[in-house]
Design a protein that fits this description.
alpha+beta; 6 helices; elongated
Length: about 200
Amino acid sequence: MQFEIGDKVIYPNHGLGVVDRIEEKTILGTTCGFYSLRMATSDTTVLVPVDNVDDVGLRRAISDNEVKKLFTLLGNGKIENHQNWKGRFKDNSDKMRTGSLYDVVDVLKSLNHLSQSKNLSFREKRMLDRAKFLVISEISEVMSESSEAIEDRVDKALERCLVNRVKLLEKAKTAKKKTAKAKASAKKTSSRAAASRSVAAS
C-alpha cells in the first residue's frame, strides 16, 4: 500500500496521523524511503519505512460511509466468548496489532461486556481504554466532530450492545428448546411407527 502527502493514516496502537513528508534517510549505510507521520493526538512525528508499511499494518483512515457500519457493529450484541484469561488476552492483543478498526471494535465490545460482571486486570483495563480511544479518535477525525460527541455515541452503542446481547441469548435459548422439543417429538413418532410395524409383523 502506498500513501501520498496529506493522506490520513492509522498506525496500529498509535492512532491517526497525517503523512507530512516522504523522505529518504541513510541509516547504517542503507538508504531507504520513510513516511513522516504527524500523529494527531500527541502532535509527535513518527517515521515509518516505506518497505515496512504492510508489516506494521499502516492503513488509510476509514471513510464516512464506514462510520455507520461501525456503529451498527458496536451495538449488535454479538460478543466473542473466551474460556480462559490467557486465550482472551492473546486473541485481543493480536486484534489490537492488526490495525483494523473492526478488530478494535471487537476488543472494545468484548472487554466492555466483561467489565460489567467483573473487575478487569490492569492490562485488560488499559487495553479497553486504548481500544475505546482508537475508535473515538478515528471516527472523530473522519466525521470532523468533537471526541466528546463521538464518545457519547460510542457509549450509547455499547449500552445497546449489552441489551441486544441479552436478547440474542434469549433467542438462542428459545431456539434450542424448540429443537430439543422437535427431536423428542420425532423420536416419539419414530418409536410409535416401529411399534406399529412390530404389531403388524406379528
